[in-house]
Amino acid sequence: MKEMCGTSRLQNQPQRHYGITSPISLAPPKDIDCIQTQKLVEAMRPFGVFEDEEEQNHRLVVLSKLNTLVKEWILELGESKNIPPSAAGNVGGKIFTFGSYKLGVHTKGADIDAVCVAPRHVERSDFFQSFFEKLKHQEKIKNLRAVEDAYVPVIKFEFDGIEIDLVFARLSMQTVSDNLDLGDDSRLRSLDIRCIRSLNGCRVTDEILHLVPNKENFQLTLRAIKLWAKRRGIYSNMLGFLGGVSWAMLVAKTCQLYPNALASTLVNKFFLVFSKW
Q1: How confident is the model over 102-121, as pLDDT tens digits?
Q2: How many angstroms separate the CA atoms of 53 and 14, rounded?
Q3: Residues with catalytic function
Q4: How many C-beta neighbours within 10 Å does residue 263 have?
Q5: Nearest of 135, 134, 130 to residue 156 by alpha carbon
Q6: Taking CA atoms, which of 83, 84, 156, 244 is between 20 and 30 Å from 265?
């Protein structure tokens, strides 16, 4: 909370406009806003919207292990396709996360959305065949299933207690480095529509985080709005309501309109703005 209240020290710096329209208010937070934001955090805590440090670290360990599996698989696949060992060892491959986990608003026990990004010698059929088989032989992976005919084809599984939805994208590049920027539009060149759809989640998530004035205020506000929507049964794009990305975009817009406000104020402004939108 000290970091949130400390944002007022930045108010004398020039303001950047994050959206198409200008902010409604640049007013800095008051002491009462800090108090109300702390009360908001305490009110949400019983609903399991915050993970403790141990749970967060466990997710990082699982993602690291999955990333290692991907690199091993791509190396093995390259060797089976007669790519020279010296080249096969440098082609890379990486797991990128997106959705609520990447936005930093996932709840306890929530799944992780991720995309396996591979170089051009790796086919989609390889992902659903040889990589699926590799996952099968991992002791800590359970409930493994592939959904190839989905709008965005996906492999679903539970890895050491963490549910993961893993999609696949094959880039038209010889190598996939660890510092690859998926926001570069040139990465989409010559890709099939399924790969583009698989990359959309990462690209949208990264863009949202790039376009909010303060990530912590955005994340806490979005946690509150998501909890409100779920408690009222209106959080589901499958049922005709708004889904996670849509709620995130609405909260991001509110943050742009009130760039210096804390979460308690942003929640209030969210309903004020969109009740009259």
Answers
A1: 999 999 999 999 999 999 99
A2: 35
A3: 100, 111, 113, 165, 226, 235
A4: 29
A5: 135
A6: 244
